[in-house]
Amino acid sequence: GSSFLTSSKRTLKSVGLQHMAAKFVVVSPRCDWSWKDVPKPWVTELVDVLRAAWWVDPNRIYLTGCSMGGMSTWELGAQRPDLFAAIAPVAAHHDAERTAYIAKQLRQTPIFVVHSLSDETCPSTKE
Question: 74-100 pLDDT, tens per residue?
Fold first, then answer.
């Protein structure tokens, strides 16, 4: 398959993509869990390994995701708040029973939440 990074030769030559390739790393793993589960530990283990690389600034690792990825953002951020400089869940929902745990774990973590009031799949009223 292809991604937005490899969809066309013209895209690969774009100023934006060249800037991105020179300035930051994006890791987008394919998850092997469902929306009903918490993310598996290999995700934070992967970030730990990448964090040790000389070309990664460990103080500038950010976590984001949309929908199920946003839910995983809440969960992974709460599991390892020491790993991320900030998190940004988008259109995310989490199990109401985990709200207190997530809030406690992330109380010192900067968070930017994006959610549409028109979202019918994961209504913002649940948050």
Answer: 999 999 999 999 999 998 877 888 899
- Of the candidates 92, 53, 97, the one whose C-alpha atom is nearest the C-alpha of residue 27 is 53
List Cβ neighbours of 35 (8 Å cut-off, separation of 6 or more). 68, 71
**Under a CB-based contact definition with an 8 Å cutoff, are residues 91 and 68 in contact?**
no
Q: Would you state the structure tokens that stand for residue 76, as one six-digit string? A: 């992974």
Asked if residue 73 lies in contact with residue 29, where contact means CB atoms within 8 angstroms, the answer is: no
In this predicted structure, what is the pLDDT of residue 83? 95
User: Which residues, other chains included, contact 40 with Cβ-Cβ below 8 Å and sequence gap of 6+?
Assistant: 31, 32, 33
pLDDT of residue 123: 66
Cα–Cα distances in Å, from 25 out to 59, 74, 117? 14, 21, 31
50 vs 27, more confident? 50
Please state, in angstroms and rounded to a whole number, the distance separating the CA atoms of residues 85 and 83: 7
What's the token pair of residue 64? 């984001």
Please provide the average confidence, as pLDDT, over all residues in the chain. 82
